[in-house]
Amino acid sequence: MLGKIDLKVRRGEFLTLVGPSGCGKSTLLRLIAGLETASEGDISIAGRDVTKAPPKQRDVAMVFQNYALYPHLTVAQNMSVPLRMRRLGRLQRLPLIGSLMPQASEKLASIKTEVEAAARSLAIEHLLARKPAQLSGGQRQRVALGRAIVRKPQVFLLDEPLSNLDAQLRVHMRSELVQLHRRLGVTLIYVTHDQAEAMTMSSRIAVMFAGQILQIGTPDAVYDNPDHLKVAQFISNPGLNTLPLALILGGPRGRQIDDSLWTIAASGSDLTVGFRPEACALAASAAVADLSGRVLLCERFGAEAFIHVLLHGASAPVIVRVEPSQASVLLPDEVVHIQIDASKIFVFGQDGTRVRDQRRAAA
After folding, report:
1. I need a labelling partner for 203 at 20 to 30 A (CA). Which of 174, 240, 290, 337 fits?
2. pLDDT averaged over the chain?
3. Four-CA torsion 230, 231, 235, 236, nearest 10 degrees
4. Superfamily assignment of 236-355 in CATH?
């Protein structure tokens, strides 16, 4: 179920609806497509009210997670379906009768040309005679995109189209989708639960939780200035560290930390701070550290390394990004000291909303 949604998508932008499973992002996409009906509110596309219009009158094209290809049709036939349904009459669509009708022959030739052009743009022209069972996952995804492209809609709607692909192919297809969007210059609304897809592909992202949009903005703006704890946690990778604000201010360098945190602390109790692994680093000694703790785990992945540290006075470990050379010499249970960049600390209230220093907000 969706709550009150106020969403304006700019013409030609790549907007991504991102959030955990069940947050309502696919439902919102289906409402735009006309596949579900809203109990209240209005939906407009290109300035036209389509709230009560059936899907075929909304001038949108939707690409589904499972591609929704007809298994008995070839690639060319699958891609031509929307054009045949739009341009040909019932009798003209019949294989034997349609071929005997001059007007139908002209329309079919035009459809064939348009399908071949779309196939070339997706580099699948050599697959036009194959059927879906003969295609890889990435090829099926391109066919589904091609079927949407030939319609030349006002809006493309993509519902988790990469979720069935393996990790390497997803990365490749992300790049292809961005380039396709640039070539076509169309409005594209994309649904995903994958933060990497949202952050790397989009003009703007709308982060959804429990049927509501908690924040909308450019990927950088949402990442650097999250308005809610849930937004910060969801967008962070490998994860957002959270601690009581009092624990940070009570550390060895508490009095040296940015005075904005002290100002915020004076405004209320039970405040939570959030900071990402890249906002902290290992300190040389306790005297110059914010917090200390013992190493639980070291993770290395190529050029990146992370250590999990259980801080003194904390109930859950924090993750610190370090150089691989640092991680390689650390042992489990070894005591380490951590320094946190105060300018990259977010403070959240009990309800999860961001708490800011009002002096800075007014400046």
Report:
1. 240
2. 88
3. -60
4. Nucleic acid-binding proteins (2.40.50.140)
